[in-house]
Amino acid sequence: MTTEDAAHPRFTEALRELGLDELNAKVRRFPDATRTAAEAAAAVGCELGQICKSLIFAADGVPVLVLMDGASRVDVELVRRELGADKVTRAKADVVRETTGYAIGGVPPFGHRTRTRVLADRALLDHDLVWAAAGNPHAVFPIAPKDLVAHAGATLVDVREHTS
Q1: Distances from the Cα of 109 to the Cαs of 17, 30, 31, 51, 94, in angstroms?
Q2: Cβ-count burial of 77 within 10 angstroms (0-12 exposed, 13-18 middle, 19+ buried)?
Q3: Would you list the DSSP string of 19-85?
Q4: Over the chain (164 residues), what is each successive 10-residue block's mean pLDDT?
Q5: Which neighbouring-strand residues pair with 29?
């Protein structure tokens, strides 16, 4: 498999549409799945915090994408407050696929089937480079966090769970 077809075809097309064609050559495909942030970090050889998780939540039933560093967990209450929603829950697998066009474990930060509101946790900016899913559980791509936030159309927020 070439790097050109390492990413999901819809994601490859999204990169072209965004003028990010050069990222297609940087997609890395692995024989083993990189569904979790820990698996992705081990495969890439980077810190866990350099993995960008693309997580779909339902805010009062409306899908919302949250971009979070791999070392952190989303504080659902902070997301709820940020959105002014009554209730925020993790979206079920069928909602994730319907909304994004991708399966959990391979959801990229952009190139989704439908347009959703996007929140990006500010901690992503702590890194020069992050790795995100390229549309399937076997492929990731590198991108500067500020570019990721811009191309995802994300609002920078603080929605990370803080442990005491």
Answers
A1: 14, 19, 22, 11, 18
A2: exposed
A3: T-GGGGGG-EE-SS---SHHHHHHHHTS-GGGEEEEEEEEETTEEEEEEEETT--B-HHHHHHHHT-
A4: 65 91 90 85 94 97 97 97 97 95 93 95 96 93 96 96 80
A5: 139
pLDDT number for residue 1: 38
The DSSP bridge pattern shows strands 62-69 and 117-121 to be parallel
Tokens of 64: 């919302």
Helix H or strand E segment including 140:
strand 139-143
Eight-state DSSP code of residue 131: E
Using a 10 angstrom Cβ sphere, with 0-12 exposed, 13-18 middle and 19 or more buried, the burial of residue 45 is exposed
Rounded to the nearest 5°, which phi and psi values hold at 93? -55, -40
Characterize the bridge pairing of strands 28-29 and 139-143: antiparallel
The residue type found at 18 is: L
